[in-house]
Every structure is written in structure tokens, then in C-alpha cells.
Write a structure and sequence with these properties.
Length: about 350
């Protein structure tokens, strides 16, 4: 399936970014070697940079964020283990039940609208050790939680989860697909969110604007074991420096600018909140994800999405009446303003 050629403003995901000419130049000039043998200088440099950024000892370049989650789960858990995570988590909704398939794990879902939970929620989800129970093993946190609406986990909430998990000898994993959005939005060093976790990863292919890749970080011992799983999953690469160079470029040039995506998301949210029948609270939009409900317009999300596409705008369908617009490097303020106006005229044009 190819992307419809008429899409001018693509708000379907922050994965829609294409590498900039400067990023492509950095990729073309990358020093490369055999990554699988640990001999690619660009990959090694990227791993070091990300480990340092996240306050961890070591890191491992992987082809995707999904693989970062799955390698971490397989490394931390054994079959029969249970993972505690928010109901809205990507590992529950969007990874083909990989935790069950590869790790042999259950996931115990904490019901929370924003994807943010507390130490007490973790305590309530931990199983009493019994012959017949799954073994509670891992707590997974998504910073920010995609289907929770992109709200930033406050450090106090993270601290309470970390303390509760540690007091029950549970391991901690952070899905950091949008960790840098959280860091920029809250003016917090990424390591202040990430350093107390046993594993944490960054996605390069979302807001950071790279064509591919994620970097999983943790202790040296964890990364050594994770590297075995990387190989088992077929994720070991060869001259991967070409794509790691995009990551290095993004760490230098695409982090601070995430604030523009957040401002654009805010502008879009404020505009569409004025449209009769569309419901969202712009004050809840903290980063680059804008979820909204269209029920009162009398139209379904799918119908609106189709009509938007016919006018060159793509917005995601997240349910019968729920939609998601995501801002990123490839859309600017005038794009989100235009998308807001097109949506307004479609809704008034019953
Ligand atoms: C929170 C979250 N985790 C993991 C992923 C998976 O990342 P990837 O698409 O790089 O596999 C995504 C992708 O949308 C995500 O939003």
C-alpha cells in the first residue's frame, strides 16, 4: 500500500518524518563497520551517547522501538512471569502480543486514562507469591504514554512506582518512544527520568526524525544479555552506521526543536476545541499528541478521516469517535492551522 499521493499535511504519526537533507548528508558520510561484530564506529558512538543521555552504563542499537520493548522483556522475564503496565500501553495494544509470544509473559493491566499510575497501583497489582499464581516480575512505564494522550509522567509518580517495585524486588522498564518529548516539555534531563530504571530506550524514528531505529540502555550485564536476544530476533545488522549517523545527527539537532512540535500541538488543540461537537481539553495536551472525540459532530472518526484525506490532511482514527493528530518535524504552524480550518469546515458542512 502506498501513501495516498494527495496527503499534504500528515498528522497521522510522528513516524511520518522524512530525513532532512542535512541528516541525509550525515548518513552518507558515516564511518561504518560490521555492527554485528561490534566494529561499527558510528553505532558504537551512538550507543555511548544514548547510555550517557539516559544515565545508564551501556546501550544497544536496535532496528525498532517494538524490538527494544521485546528484547527488554525477553531479557528480564521468564515464561510464566507477569508484567505490570498501564492498560493503554503499547506493549499491550500494539506489539502483536509479543510479550506472550517471545517472553511467555502475561501482562496485568492497570486501568488509567493517561497511562500514568502510582506506587499504590503497582502494590495492588502485585500477586501474592503462590504456587498457582503468575510471578510478578516487571513494571513497565511508558514516558510519555501514547494512547494515554502524551502526558508527561511527573517525577514524583515515577519515584513512587520505582520505590514500590524495588521494595517487592521487581524490575523496571521504561518505554521511551517519546521520552525526549517528555524531557523537553518538562525541562528535565532525560536521565532524571531514566536512570533509576533497569532498562530504558529512545525511539529515533519518531520525534527525532530518523528513518529507523531505537536504542535500548541499561547496565553492562543487562545489555550483554539483551545483545543475545537482539541476535535471536534477527536484529543484528552489518554496516548500520549509515542509520546510526542519523541518530547522532538527531541527538545534536532535533531534541530542542521538539518544543516547536509541542507548541504546534497546543495551537491545533486550541483551534479544534472551538469546533462545535469536537471535545478535548487543550490544557491536557503537554507534548505532541492531540487526541479528541468527535461524537457530538454526528460523524464517525472514520468518516471524518476519509473526508480529511480527500482534502490532503491525514489524521488517525483511534476508535469509533476518537481521533489522534500528531505534530512533528515535517509539519509547521501553518500546516496545523490549515488542518484545523479544514476540520472546522468539514464539521460545519454536515
Ligand atoms: C509508546 C510506543 N512504544 C513503542 C512503539 C514502537 O516503536 P516502533 O514503531 O519504532 O517499533 C511506539 C510506536 O508508535 C510507541 O508509540
Amino acid at each position: 500500500m502506498t501513501k495516498p499521493g494527495n496527503i499534504r499535511i500528515d498528522l497521522v504519526s510522528d513516524t511520518a518524518t522524512r530525513p532532512t537533507p542535512e541528516m541525509r548528508r550525515a548518513m552518507a558520510q558515516a564511518e561504518v563497520g560490521d555492527e554485528q561484530r561490534g566494529e561499527d564506529p558510528s553505532v558504537n558512538a551512538l550507543n555511548e551517547r544514548v547510555a550517557d543521555l539516559l544515565g545508564q552504563e551501556a546501550a544497544l542499537f536496535l532496528p525498532s522501538g517494538t524490538m527494544c520493548n521485546q528484547v527488554a522483556i525477553a531479557t528480564h522475564c521468564n515464561p510464566g512471569d507477569e508484567i505490570i503496565a498501564a492498560e493503554a500501553s503499547h506493549i499491550i495494544s500494539s506489539e502483536g502480543a509479543g510479550a506472550a509470544v517471545f517472553g511467555g509473559c502475561f501482562i496485568r493491566a492497570i486501568p488509567t486514562r493517561t497511562g500514568i499510575f502510582s506506587g499504590e497501583d503497582v502494590a495492588n497489582a502485585i500477586r501474592t507469591a503462590k504456587l498457582k499464581s503468575p510471578r510478578s516480575r516487571l513494571v513497565s512505564v511508558e514516558q510519555t504514554c501514547n494512547r494515554g494522550g502524551g502526558a508527561v509522567w511527573p517525577r514524583a509518580a515515577l519515584k513512587s512506582v520505582v520505590e514500590m517495585a524495588r521494595s517487592h524486588q521487581l524490575v523496571l522498564h521504561m518505554d521511551g518512544a517519546r521520552l525526549m518529548n517528555a524531557a523537553v516539555a518538562s525541562r528535565t534531563d532525560a536521565r532524571d527520568f531514566a536512570a533509576s530504571f533497569d532498562s530504558v530506550w529512545l525511539d529515533l524514528s519518531k520525534g527525532l526524525g530518523c528513518p529507523v531505529g531505537g536504542v535500548l540502555a541499561g547496565s553492562t550485564g543487562f545489555i550483554e544479555k539483551a545483545n543475545v536476544w537482539k541476535h535471536r530476533f534477527g536484529g543484528a545488522m552489518r554496516q548500520a552506521g549509515i542509520i546510526a549517523a542519523a541518530g547522532l545527527y538527531a541527538l545534536d539537532h532535533h531534541i530542542e526543536r521538539l518544543a516547536e512540535d509541542h507548541d504546534n500541538a497546543q495551537a491545533f488543540a486550541k483551534r479544534i476545541a472551538e469546533i462545535p461537537g469536537i471535545f478535548l481539553d487543550p490544557s491536557e495536551i503537554e507534548t505532541n499528541l492531540v487526541f479528541f472525540d468527535v461524537k457530538e459532530t454526528g460523524r464517525s472518526a472514520a468518516d471524518l478521516a476519509d473526508h480529511l484525506i480527500s482534502q490532503g490532511v491525514r489524521i488517525g482514527v483511534e476508535g469509533k469517535t476518537r481521533m489522534r493528530a500528531v505534530t512533528h518535524l515535517d509539519v509547521d504552524r501553518s500546516d496545523v492551522e490549515e488542518a484545523g480550518e479544514i476540520l472546522a469546515s468539514l464539521v460545519s458542512d454536515k
